[in-house]
Write a structure and sequence with these properties.
The chain has about 450 residues and is an alpha/beta fold. The protein has three domains: about 5-260, Bira Bifunctional Protein, Domain 2 (BirA Bifunctional Protein, domain 2), CATH 3.30.930; about 280-345; about 350-440, no CATH class. It contains 15 helices and eleven strands. The chain has helices at about 5-20, 50-55, 110-125, 150-155, 170-175, 245-250, 265-275, 285-310, 325-330, 330-355, 375-385, 385-395, 405-410, 425-430, 435-440, and strands spanning about 25, 65-75, 95-105, 130-135, 165-170, 175, 180-190, 210-225, 230-240, 370, 400. It is globular. Bound molecules: adenosine-5'-triphosphate (ATP) and magnesium ion (3 copies). Adenosine-5'-triphosphate (ATP) binds near residues 81 and 214. Its cofactor is Zn(2+). Catalyzes the attachment of alanine to tRNA(Ala) in a two-step reaction: alanine is first activated by ATP to form Ala-AMP and then transferred to the acceptor end of tRNA(Ala). Also edits incorrectly charged tRNA(Ala) via its editing domain. One of its GO terms (biological process) is alanyl-tRNA aminoacylation.
Length: about 450
């Protein structure tokens, strides 16, 4: 491509480093150190949390950070920013992605941050301004947070037309790291992939046509454990832009999977998977859509696994490659994946058999089909299925897990005696299946000393 991803990344880092005096700080590993509130690093700011909170050891190099830039490996699986439900289904949410980030720790604030972001996008990357929309925090009465008029005026002064400057509430424009931690109002830049029309109503509307690219957060509070907001000792700026999304914009692609960050990977997947069609090979058919979705999931997953496994090791950005640990650790990554894959495939096979047989028993006319919570729980506990995988596998059949019952089980910690590939008498009763020998052919003997059933499979 005209502008390879590597160049997009380095242009960003150079702009802030050389032109605006930011210090380049390496990405931290995706596994957070010493922060029990997080499963994975979900944003560039995570490693700087102590700076926001004012708890940095004065002897640490962090104590002197004022302007910082980096490219951070992020994983959004689980927690407040979980994106697993979107990955593969859309073309711009990844499990692992790179966040291009900038910070001002008590240095510049809103106006300079907005001006630098706009200048980089429109002048250096050459994105037409009429493809961009800007959102800002419009306030929230219930939490007594006011509209961020200061930011609105900054953008207006910079010539952004009012019709492209849109207020949103807490969910979109008040960024929070997790259930607790630094937070504040934000202003975001969105890109219209189509152009030539008023697309304001598509901003923050889950449309693939208008996609959020850059978030500028004005860190002013800490969300305490009791959910109250405490003002931070100093105000800071924390911005983050998804590299994959930016690259898709600059390479003129509607999908991040059509950029050079993914095409080699999708090609390699095609080579080893003996799938008939390459990614995006045939168009229009529903089958191909499903195959393409699978391609996207696999490609996304390979990236995520590689980065996560490699991060048993400390990254260093000193030489050539951006993430050298990926090369150093290649053999180990392959070993770990193979081992886990074999184990998981076995589990998957057992679990799929159970799930396949279960809906046959759910004769429950007139109401939604529910999978017994104990079966779901057994898949999870005995086979290590993530519960959302169970949901996914059932989705195609129009079946849902009995959530209420499952929550009850999880909360009560009851040990259930459902075994693999088995449905108990209690299951059949709950599902309203008549107790004929015929229906019991699905049942296995569970509570041996209480019931005797023919195991007739
Ligand atoms: P979205 O609304 O699209 O889910 P977000 O508001 O959750 O994004 P932020 O927390 O504001 O995202 O993160 C900053 C930037 O990181 C986003 O503007 C986007 O460019 C990028 N980003 C966020 N989540 C993902 C993801 N799952 N995959 C790729 N890029 C992402
Ligand atoms: Mg999101
Ligand atoms: Mg958003
Ligand atoms: Mg956002």
């Amino acid at each position: 491509p005209e502008l390879p991803a590597a160049q997009v990344r380095s242009t960003f880092l150079d702009f802030f480093r050389q032109k605006h005096g930011h210090l380049l700080v390496p990405s931290s590993p995706v596994r957070p150190r010493g922060d029990p509130s997080l499963l994975f690093v979900n944003a560039g700011m995570n490693q700087f949390k102590p700076i926001f909170l004012g708890t940095v050891d004065p002897r640490s190099p962090m104590a002197s950070y004022r302007r910082v830039v980096n490219s951070q490996k992020c994983v959004r699986a689980g927690g407040k920013h979980n994106d697993l439900d979107d990955v593969g289904r859309d073309t711009y949410h990844h499990t692992f992605f790179e966040m291009l980030g900038t910070w001002s720790f008590g240095d510049y604030f809103k106006e300079e941050a907005c001006r630098m972001a706009w200048s980089l996008l429109t002048e250096h990357y050459g994105i037409p301004a009429d493809r961009l929309y800007v959102s800002y925090f419009g306030g929230d009465a219930a939490s007594r947070l006011q509209s961020d008029e200061e930011t609105r005026h900054i953008w207006l002064d910079m010539g952004i037309p009012p019709s492209r400057l849109l207020p949103f509430g807490l969910k979109e424009n008040f960024w929070e790291m997790g259930d607790s931690g630094p937070c504040g109002p934000c202003t975001e830049i969105h890109y219209d992939h189509v152009g030539g029309r008023d697309a304001a109503r598509l901003v923050n509307a889950d449309s693939p046509d208008v996609v959020e690219i850059w978030n500028l957060v004005f860190m002013q509070y800490n969300r305490e454990a009791d959910l109250s907001l405490r003002r931070l000792p100093q105000f800071s700026v924390d911005t983050g832009m998804g590299l994959e999304r930016l690259v898709s914009v600059l390479q003129g692609k509607r999908s991040t999977y059509d950029t050079d960050l993914f095409t080699p990977l999708l090609h390699a997947v095609h080579q080893v998977c003996v799938m008939a069609a390459p990614y995006g090979g045939r168009t229009g058919s529903e089958d191909q859509d499903r195959v393409d979705l699978a391609y996207r999931v696999v490609a996304d997953h390979i990236r995520t696994l590689s980065v996560c496994i490699a991060d048993g090791v400390h990254p260093g950005m000193s030489g050539g490659d951006v993430y050298p640990e990926l090369h150093k650790e290649a053999d180990r990554i392959v070993d770990v994946i193979n081992e886990n894959e074999a184990q998981f495939l076995w589990s998957l096979q057992q679990g799929s058999r159970l799930i396949q047989r279960t809906p046959d028993l759910m004769i429950n006319p007139g109401s939604a089909l529910l999978l017994s919570a104990s079966v779901a729980w057994s898949l999870h506990r005995d086979l290590g299925f993530p519960l959302d995988l169970v949901d996914l596998m059932l989705e195609d059949r129009g079946v849902q897990v009995d959530r209420q019952e499952l929550d009850r089980i999880i909360q009560s910690g009851v040990e259930l005696s459902v075994m693999l590939d088995v449905l108990s008498l209690a299951e059949l009763q709950r599902l309203g299946v008549p107790h004929t020998d015929d229906s019991l052919k699905y049942a296995y003997r569970l509570e041996k000393d209480r019931y005797e059933f023919p195991a007739c499979r």
